[in-house]
Design brief:
This protein is 31% helix and 35% strand. By secondary structure, the protein is of the alpha+beta class. Strands 3-2-6-5-4-1-7 form a 7-stranded antiparallel sheet, covered by helices on one side. Strand 5 and strand 6 form a beta hairpin. The N terminus is likely disordered.
Length: 107
């Protein structure tokens, strides 16, 4: 019974972290963001390993450096520190994957 209670408590604690509810915010800027999670994982690997060729290729193939102050809706985020956001620019929007550190949540 105690184990079941602990599992339920942990599950309840994780609900706000799971990204189940969309939240709004803005971007800090200067961080990479990519159109797919796979590309974002690749650019993170390129940055960690200081692979300039891979980084430059990815920046021309689906990744961008974000601009500060752009409004976003946070669609999902993970324990790994990746955020899936909808970024709004000039009356249009695009879904991107970026670092959670790049997202300033509105309270």
């Amino acid at each position: 019974m105690a184990v079941k209670r602990i599992v339920v408590m942990v599950a309840l604690l994780l609900i706000p972290i799971s990204g189940a509810q969309a939240a709004s915010g803005t971007l800090k800027g200067g961080y990479p963001a990519c159109v797919t999670k796979a590309l974002f994982d690749q650019i993170v690997t390129a940055l960690v390993s200081k692979d300039e060729n891979a980084f430059n290729y990815l920046m021309k193939s689906g990744c961008v450096s974000t601009k500060a102050g752009l409004p976003v809706t946070i669609l999902d985020w993970s324990f790994s520190g990746t955020a899936k956001v909808r970024v709004y620019v000039g009356g249009k929007s695009i879904v991107l994957f970026t670092n959670m550190e790049n997202v300033i949540r509105k309270r």
